[in-house]
Amino acid sequence: MKGQEWYQADEVAEEYDAKRFSQGGRLIDDREQRAVLDALSPLDGKRVLEIACGTGRFTVTLAERGADIVGLDISAEMLQQGRKKAQQAGVSDHLQFMRGDAARLPFPDDYFDAVFAMRFFHLADTPASFLSEMCRVSNDQVFFDTFNSYSTRSIYNWALPMGSRLYSESEVLRLLHGASLRLRDEEHDFLLPYGFYRAIPNRIAEPFREADIAVGDTPLGQRLASVSYWDASVE
């Protein structure tokens, strides 16, 4: 998988949230949290797996809302940050963090009610195999996001330290079909790329975000959005 060495470095794990979700990046976190909660709710008693859970920002949020959740990541350093976050939130007893490989999930078939991954598929070398594994261990729902071709994401994609895979809508639909998943819902957002928001203070980012949403609600905005959220069910 792209960027594994970079992703697992101690200093990256320690600074990951601060670098990506401070300043205007808070608007990104707010949108992603809403996307996950809207797709997976209601959560009380639901058995959930998060793949590539990183520092646990979604894992902890879902545990706080009653999910029986496992967070899996390849980086021991990221998981350590997640455990600290869970302890601070008082939910350490209600979730489990595991180190593991998304290509070989250590769970039986149909074990979870929902499986999701955020900020994962842009790093995946073999997205079809990863999506098939997600489908295998879910008895109902699979949710994930992608960065999109033909969007502003492509402008700075080359500058990312690990590179990024971009997807067209037709490619995602082929992946879903190949994994025996049926698309239930899709949302497209962020005409302006994430890097733009992270580079400016929140007070400056907010007016840009309002304009982004307004244009994004138009047919043209939907086609040029840099991020998509895909909600699918197991057939």
How is this structure best described in words?
With 235 residues, the protein is α/β, with parallel strands linked by helices. Helix content is 44%, strand content 21%. It has eleven helices and seven strands. It has a seven-stranded mixed sheet, sandwiched between helices. The longest helix has 16 residues. It is an enzyme of class 2 (transferase). Its EC number is 2.1.1.-.
CATH architecture: 3-Layer(aba) Sandwich
Strand order of the largest sheet: 3-2-1-4-5-7-6
| Measured distance between first and last alpha carbons | 28 Å
Number of strands: 7
For the sheet with most strands, the description reads:
7 strands, mixed
Keywords:
single chain; 235 residues; alpha/beta; Rossmann fold; seven-stranded mixed beta sheet; 11 helices; 7 strands
Quick structural summary:
This protein is an alpha/beta fold. The protein has 11 helices and 7 strands.
Produce the secondary structure layout.
Layout: H1 4-7, H2 10-20, H3 25-40, E1 47-51, H4 57-64, E2 68-73, H5 76-89, E3 95-99, E4 112-117, H6 127-137, E5 138-147, H7 153-156, H8 169-178, E6 181-189, H9 194-198, H10 202-216, H11 219-224, E7 227-234
EC number: 2.1.1.-
Pfam families: Methyltransf_25 (PF13649)
Enzyme class: transferase
